[in-house]
Amino acid sequence: MTDIPSTLAAIAERIESDEDFAMRVGEDARAVLEAEGLPDEVVAAVLAEAEAEVVGFALPAEDAQVAVTRVATASRVVAQRY
Fold first, then answer.
1. Average pLDDT of the segment spanning 46-71
2. Are 72 and 16 in contact (CB under 8 A)?
């Protein structure tokens, strides 16, 4: 079983410190969270908290960065629930 709080904290840290990882989150946050082994309900909770699922390249860079930052923040918020 995945240690949900630790995994979410690590994801948030990687978003803030690893530009390539942050870009992957920006492209498809759901796929990245699922690849980290998180249960579906945790993935859904993070995305709902962030109000984001797929950022994609259609957004201006600063909007994409805001969305990715929201995923990092949401990861920390959801981690506190576990």
1. 71
2. yes
